[in-house]
Amino acid sequence: MTGFEDRLVAMLAGLRENEAVTVYDAEEGPLATWLAGPEHALEVMEKAAGLALAPSMVGNFHRYGVLGCYWRATEDTTLGGEFGLNHLVNACVGSVPRTISEADWPASERGYSGLVANVSEVYMPEADMEGELTELVLHGFDGNVHTGDGAIAGFRAEDGVVLDMSGHPEIWYSVNTSGTVVRLGLSYPEYLETLLLTRGLHGWQYLFADPHDPGFPEYFHLDIGRHLDFIARAFPRDDFSALRARHEAFTRARKDN
Question: Alpha carbon 176 to chain centroid distance?
Fold first, then answer.
């Protein structure tokens, strides 16, 4: 296992062992062991999807086709979190071309007509420069299955994942129940690192969005303070001060709207 895979498993074990937390569902799927390592993953994505990703994109590298957990605070079930991870290669490659070798992507790991399993795509309306509605397509790498709010974090795609000049994709976060589709100001490895810290705490992604993002409805209010208080009590060895500071800054900025 990679170092980050070990950290993910340890985080999941920590949730299960903590009396302040009740885990309602957890899934630890098999690893994509055919991916030999980060460098091989970069090679496969370039061969299969023509993506020249920045080498830093494979920081916090993991190979889980599915790793998920749905949990609540034991004494107050209004507090909780969820995550459902899918590895980077699956999220970036929608379908596997027939030209890809068995060594790079085994046939047993390909779906019908080469479609990749466990990949979620979200199609959301987005206003273009002229105010016309177009489709914003997200290739999901994290999402909520049990909460039922339609939350998904993913890479923006237009006939494939879109990269900036430095080889990084845009990360967006969409939640159906709140009507939000916002861009996040953090990289993919940073996303995974923060997910480890928050354990998938509901709404943590908004702390990395621009408070003035037009994807926020006018009525939107981020009620995450109690959640941060709980997670800090449940895991007192971790430092949540940076997230608290982000929450305070986000709240001030939203009030100034």
Answer: 16
**How confident is the model over 64-101, as pLDDT tens digits?**
999 999 999 999 999 999 999 999 999 998 788 889 99
pLDDT tens per residue across span 107-155? 888 776 666 755 556 655 555 555 555 577 888 899 988 877 778 999 9
Q: How many CB atoms lie within 10 A of CB 209?
A: 21
Q: What distances in angstroms separate CA 213 from CA 7, 63, 184, 208, 220, one per listed residue?
A: 33, 32, 10, 11, 11
User: Other C-beta atoms within 10 Å of 223: how many?
Assistant: 10
Q: Is the dihedral of CA 180, 183, 184, 187 positive or negative?
A: positive
Selection from 193, 197, 201 nearest residue 82 by Cα: 201
Would you say 78 and 136 are in contact if contact means Cβ atoms under 8 Å apart? no
> What length does the chain have?
257
Alpha carbon distance 205, 220 (integer Å): 14
Q: List Cβ neighbours of 250 (8 Å cut-off, separation of 6 or more).
A: 206, 207, 209, 211, 222
Going from the C-alpha of 152 to that of each of 107, 138, 174, 207, 239, the distances in angstroms are: 28, 8, 5, 15, 26
